[in-house]
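Quick one, T. Sequence first:
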Amino acid sequence: MGTIGERIRATRVKQGLTGAELARRIGVLPKDIWRYESGRVKSPSADVVGRIGEALGVSTDFLIHGSSDSTVTPPDAAE
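Structure tokens:
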């Protein structure tokens, strides 16, 4: 997975979410998810990347750089 869009799509599909479901979770239009995943938008804003990461349960580092540690520990689980 070479691009942020490819990582978003692969993670979303792996979790069984549609683009519309992810869009609803992060407060954007479904066409925006398509734009991110297709590469029409090369770099979504940091805020959007953060919301996508939170909705998918992965780190922003994974989405941006493809780092191997993709999972995020929910704040209340770390206690």
